[in-house]
Structure formats: C-alpha cells, structure tokens
Amino acid sequence: MKWEENVRKVVPYVAGEQPNKPDMIKLNTNECPYPPAPGVRELAAGMDCDALRLYPDSNTTLLVDALAEYYGVKPGQVFVGVGSDDVLAMAFMTFFNSDRPILFPDVTYSFYDVWAELYRIPYRICALDEDWHIRPEDYRQPNGGVIFPNPNAPTGLPESLDTVEEIIQANQDVVVIVDEAYVDFGGVSALPLLEKYENLLVVQTFSKSRAMAGLRIGFCIGNERLIRYLNDVKFSFNSYTMNYPAQMLGVEAVRDDAYFKAVTAKVVDTRERVKKELAQLGFTFPDSRANFIFASHRTVPAETIFRALREADIYVRYWNKPRISNSLRITIGTDEQMDRLLGFLKEFLAENQ
Ligand SMILES: *Cc1c(COP(=O)(O)O)cnc(C)c1O
Question: Ligand 1 centre and the CA of 204: distance in Å?
C-alpha cells in the first residue's frame, strides 16, 4: 500500500512473557519475589480515590523530593518516569542527537538498539571480551553518546567504578548513561562520580529491588542542566507521564529503607546459595551481582533445558541470539521457588546428559 511508505517501521522490543498460572514459578523477568514495603500496602489499601479525578502532579514533586533526600542530591538533579524504560527512552531522545553513532555493548539490554532504531540514532556495538567484561578502550572512538548497564544484563557482571570512570573520562563531550537497574543487589553505583562529571546520567528503577514492577517507576540522577533538558523533552511529549498512585506509593517505598535493605540482602543470600548449587549441577556462569544468574550447562543445551522447564511451568529467559544462545537467565526467586527449580534440574539432568 502506498501509505505504508510513510509509516515509521520498527521491530519492537520483546518483553519476557507474563504467564499467569496458579502453580507456576516465574523467574523470567527479574521481578522481586517479595511484596513491596508494608507502608506501600497500607497506603494502597486506604488510597483516596477522589484524587483520581484530578491530573497528577506533572513535576512528581513528592517522589522527586523523596529520592533527592535518599540519595543526597538536589531535587533539580532527579527526573522520574514510568519505569526506567520511560526514563531511558526520554534520555535517548534528549541526549543522543548526533550524527555520530552511540556506543553500547553487544551483549546487553536488548532495548537499546530498539530505541536507537525508533529515533533513527546511529549506533555501533562494542563486543564484550571473552569473560563478558566491557573493554573500556572500545569507548575511545568518536561517538554521539555512550550507554551501558552496570551490572550488565543479561550477564549480571559488574564493572568497577574505575572502569566506569575511565569510560566517562574519555567521553566528556557526550552524555554517558549508566543503567543501574540491578545496582542494589551488590553492584557499585556511579552516583559518587556525579560531582566530577556533568555529562553523567545514572538511571535506576523501582521494578527490581523495590518490588514495584507493576507500578512502573524509574528515575535518573544527573547534573541539573541534564535534568532540565530531559524535562523540556518530557513536557514536549506528555506532561502527565506518572500517575497519582505511582507517585504516592513510590514515596512510601523510598521511606522504608530497612525493608528495602532486608529484601535486597535476602535476594543476594539466595543468589549466592543458588550459585553453589548450580555449579554442582554442572552449570557455569559469570559471577552475577544482580538478581539473576546467566547460566550455561556443560553438556545440555540451554534451549533444551528452557523447554523442559517451561513444560514444568518454571519460566526462565532464553534468547536465541549470537553469543548467548547457550545461556539461561534465571531470576532469583524465594528460597522455596529456587529449591523447586534446582530439584527439577537435578532430576532432568540426571535423565538427559
Ligand atoms: C529491567 C530493566 C530496565 C527497565 O526496567 P523498568 O521496569 O522499565 O524500570 C532497564 N534496564 C535494564 C538493564 C533492565 O534490566
């Protein structure tokens, strides 16, 4: 059809499936296996529905203030969005506006190339080394911006603050975005580098460590100038991105630091135990500091294991893509969920290798 010539055509990002079966074990989208903080539940139960008549605060003031206080920065350094996907999409649109390619790793969050294609931003991928680490020297070529997650996804591998700083230092003429979706599970945040580099944007989310994937809350912290540019784009696109319940409940989640620390520590504990047990079953994996493990079995192909798990209503993530087609990304669930996964694997591998 003629009209189709003028349509913007994109290949969309494919999110992990959201099955809803009574007895399933869902370890495929890195959600938190524990509920949000008790204060969130309380506030949700008593939420004033009359307030839904009005538009929400387009500046998300209460949530911005709560985050600024928590991270020890000025409110003008914080930007909030509908999940960090929204924050990242806005940041791509705002900061990656050059004819030079943006740079990101080959094995990484698979949304980056989708946004680049959507906004027609040229990009170049830089291969991780054979141990899945970023090679900082790759980020010394001319570019229009840099983005990478730390810890990386789907490997779970953290880069040191030195490596992160080396990349920022070499790229002070462009914006460098560090996607810290998993930093609360033992990574090292780049936030302390904000004092030194005005071109750094640190992006985080409530979806994983704060157990609120369903509300869609993400945020970023950076220099006030960066945040102003980001807000200019946001207010040119959709003023009321974040709904009222999300703003209110988000504040409650930030307030309960003890619960946040307890939940993330519990996930980390379980992760370390599961690492040992997976190794005993013949799996190898990078030493994850995230809430998932990216595992390959020594003899049985990942796809075979993936299908068998799925049959048993145990959902993990698998990509049939170069370099990662023999790995499964397994989210850390409760101890009970992980025991059921490990029990299944033990039996399956005994029969199939
Ligand atoms: C999960 C994830 C996000 C997005 O999470 P939101 O739910 O949109 O906040 C962003 N980056 C990475 C690397 C992720 O894994």
Answer: 8
